[in-house]
Design goal:
The complex is a heterodimer. Chain A has 6 helices and 13 strands. Chain A starts with a strand and ends with a helix. In chain B, strand 12, helix 5 and strand 13 form a beta-alpha-beta unit. In chain B, helix 3 packs across helix 4 and helix 5 runs parallel beside helix 8. Chain B is α/β, with parallel strands linked by helices. Chains A and B meet through helix 3, helix 4, strand 7, strand 8 and strand 9 of A and helix 3, helix 4, strand 5, strand 7 and strand 8 of B. The structure holds flavin-adenine dinucleotide and adenosine monophosphate. Adenosine monophosphate (AMP) binds next to helix 1, strand 4, helix 3, strand 6 and helix 4 of chain A.
């Protein structure tokens, strides 16, 4: 079974981004960029499926700037087999990303797509569900365990009340949650090997998809700041403040 | 304008989040209908009919909706979509599961986890773990929106809308519910509790949560939350996680115990009214958002707090 893993180049999770003074967007100049953490988990899961003999080829796709190559190379170093970079310098919204991924799925015919549940830049949590909708495939979102049983995929999902397991027909789309696995670090030899793995480049504009954003960003602002509080010296003082000053006990 | 609100429930009870989603719908303005899709969920439909300001309740009862799986839910909502300009749900894991699927089928861009309504086509939503707020204007003819319930006021329950039974379907039959393992707890629901007490990595074990956090929670009638580190380590179940990629809470009082205050955690709790932090490191970033900070070893402070209450 071929597994497709879409990965997004995003601001590193350790960076605390700042809003630009002109309020047009956040300032991403000179900040560290990385693979979206949930996508690392997706790559790791695909590699484990390959190691278990369930997957036979792992194709990584990223839609973004030329530099998203770095993230594809990282996935290749973790164990993916080849990459597809769909280049564009404009911001592509989830719906358009899903449409491009759909075309790639039609061409590649994967048996499974594993992707992140959420990109930590826009925090939208929707691309996987959209791709599943466009392909009319079932979806297993927020996965903390993935098992193949016969011709079905058993996906255990992290839901509000605990865990839920669903059985999906294949092909399907799975989105990862934090507890699915712990992604490996690529070894130096594997990083070297990854440089020789095939990487196809395509232009987003060539997919014949309207990339015009449906949501116009009117402005981006700082969230209201909390007023600095005080340090209390003892548990007694804390209880007193909560009762008599804050009135919450 | 007509707005369809998808109710959150477990077939027995209507979730309070739905009252807040209706609150958001009222800010948009228009006729508001509520869809209850479930199995033997008559009591939920009854409850939904009492939500203030609702025009009617659509009730689809079918075993396919017992667990509100994304595939049948989507087909049902898309079938009803012609009659509506807006489709709203909360950011519950159900809503986050089926709403983007609905949006894609309608060829519109979902507006995820809104915290504000500026005008009928313009919404505010946090991005980058809440480090920025984006104001976005949608040009889509239909708007598919998930609503962050903590950001909106719940409407009352003094309505009396008619309940209209509707047929289910279509049913894609590509996915199936197998089993679930729900966290059992007599404590209030994390998302709507007035007081939340959360533990972090510093607790060090599931036993420590039981010994230090749970009794305090019971005394305060509080819900228990946790940082990702505590959940990853298996001290508490996954649904306790508060943060950017877990639950967002905004209680009257949030007590963070042994939590450093990473941006991903802050994203889930900085809208709380009063924040208390107990941490032995006086430099811990959590103190920057805490109204009351106590620099102390939690294993000494919590038993004292238990006693003082
Ligand atoms: C993609 C992604 C998503 C994430 N999503 C979330 C999320 O939704 N929610 C979330 O919480 N995190 C999330 N994280 C993780 C986040 O970055 C932090 O790693 C995590 O919040 C740290 O948890 P912690 O504060 O419990 O642990 P630590 O950072 O290790 O902090 C432990 C704290 O306990 C204090 N301490 C130690 N011993 C004691 C003691 N005896 N008494 C008192 N204090 C003590 C220490 O001083 C320290 O401040 C996410 C990370 C990534 C990459
Ligand atoms: N530009 C992109 N290129 C490749 N994959 C993407 C892109 N945008 C989103 N994704 C995938 O979709 C997931 C969810 O993103 P989102 O819906 O934006 O939160 C991510 O974790 C990625 O796996």
């Amino acid at each position: 079974m071929k597994v497709l893993v879409p990965v997004k180049r995003v601001v590193d999770y350790n960076v605390k981004v700042r809003v630009k003074p002109d309020q047009t967007d956040v300032d991403l100049a000179n900040v560290k960029m990385s693979m979206n953490p949930f996508d690392e988990i997706a790559v790791e899961e695909a590699v484990r499926l390959k190691e278990a003999g369930i997957a036979d080829e792992i194709v990584v796709v990223s839609i973004g700037p030329e530099k998203a190559q770095d993230q594809i190379r990282q996935a290749l170093a973790m164990g993916a087999d080849r990459g597809i970079l769909v280049t564009t310098d404009q911001e592509v919204e989830s719906l358009a990303v899903a449409k491009i991924l759909k075309k790639i799925c039609e061409e590649e015919q994967p048996g499974l797509v594993i992707m992140g549940k959420q990109a930590i830049d826009d925090d939208r949590n929707q691309t996987g569900q959209m791709l599943a909708a466009l392909l009319d495939w079932p979806q297993g979102t927020f996965a903390s365990e993935v098992k193949k049983e016969g011709d079905k995929l058993l996906v255990t999902r992290e839901i509000d009340g605990g865990l839920q397991t669903v059985a999906l027909n294949l092909p399907a789309v799975v989105t990862t949650d934090l507890r699915l696995n712990e992604p490996r670090y690529a070894s130096l030899p594997n990083i070297m090997k990854a440089k020789k793995k095939p990487l196809d480049k395509k232009a987003a504009a060539d997919f014949g998809i309207d990339l015009t954003p449906r949501l116009k960003k009117l402005k981006v602002t700082e969230p209201p700041k909390r007023k600095a509080g005080i340090k209390v010296e003892s548990v007694e003082e804390l209880v007193d403040k909560l009762k008599n000053e804050a009135g919450v006990l | 304008m007509a707005i369809l609100v998808i109710a959150d429930h477990n077939n027995e009870e209507l979730n309070d989040a739905t009252l807040k989603v209706v609150g958001a719908a009222q800010k948009i303005g228009g006729d508001i209908d509520v869809l209850v899709a479930g199995e033997n969920a008559g009591a939920v439909a009854e409850a939904a009919s009492k939500i203030s300001g609702v025009r009617k309740v659509l009730h689809a009862d079918d075993p396919h909706y017992a667990k509100r799986l994304a595939e049948p839910m989507t087909e049902l909502i898309v079938r009803l979509a012609d009659d509506y300009d807006y489709i709203l749900s909360s950011t519950s894991t159900d809503g986050r599961n089926f709403m983007p699927r609905v949006a894609a089928k309608l060829d519109v861009m979902q507006i995820s986890a809104i915290t504000g309504v500026e005008s009928p086509d313009t919404f505010v939503r946090p991005i980058y773990a809440g480090n920025a707020l984006a104001t976005v204007q949608s040009s889509d003819p239909k708007k598919v929106i998930t609503v962050q319930p903590t950001a909106f006021e719940a409407v009352g329950m003094d309505g009396s809308a008619p309940i209209e039974k509707i047929e289910g379907g279509p049913f894609p039959e590509v996915s199936e519910f197998v089993s679930e393992e729900l966290t059992k707890s007599d404590r209030p629901d994390l998302a709507s509790a007035k007081i939340v007490i959360s533990g972090g990595r510093a607790l060090g074990s599931a036993e420590a949560f039981e010994k230090y956090i749970f009794p305090l929670a019971d005394k305060l009638n509080a819900a228990v939350g946790a940082s990702r580190a505590a959940v990853d380590a298996g001290y508490v179940p996954n649904d306790y996680q508060v943060g950017q990629t877990g639950k967002v809470v905004a209680p009257e009082l949030y007590i963070a115990v042994g939590i450093s205050g990473a941006i991903q955690h802050l994203a889930g709790m900085t809208d709380s009214k009063v924040i208390v932090a107990i941490n032995k490191d006086e430099e811990a970033p959590i103190f920057q958002v805490a109204d009351y900070g106590l620099v102390a070893d939690l294993f000494e402070a919590l038993p004292k707090l238990q006693e003082a209450l």
